[in-house]
Design a protein that fits this description.
By secondary structure, this protein is an alpha+beta fold. The protein has three helices and ten strands, in the order αβαβββββββαββ. The chain has one domain. α1 runs parallel beside α2.
Amino acid sequence: MGRGGLAGAAAYVYSHIAEFQLRSKYRHLQRIWNYLDDINTGAGDDERYRVFCSGRSAGLTALGLERFPAATAIGRRDGSHRLQVYWLAARSAGLALENPRQVSAYRYPRRYGPVAPGFSRAMLAPGIGLLISGTASVVGHASHHPGDLVAQLEETVNNLQTVLDRANAHWDYAHGGPTTTSARR
């Protein structure tokens, strides 16, 4: 992977995204997609997702974000050891939303790694709509119903509905965009 392994690669990529965003007229990150192979390989703090989160955090420090964009880390099995990152940005800030059924990912306890994941559960993006992330069957900060696909899907639908309800409460239908009021928990 070069650049100091996965943490170094993530820090490198995200620091370049931060530099680009600071110069761009589309300065406001709305949604990020991260693709990496063997995402759950490794034990404890050596798990690849945790290592990635540490690098991402280091790379994003230049932006000084008060709110994180919606984001997803997606595992793949191609053996490429390549980190691919795609992002969507806008001229205006979106409204970061959290799911009251879930602990905000950026506030996860230490047991999930040395650095909490840096994403919001959803983003009401101006001119785009609702961008959802990090839903799944998580309640609080733990995945529920391991091994029970139907129960996991039901929990995921409950989380999606909660985020949709929250977004609806912060959508200005007269102007076709998010309200300016805070959506923080």
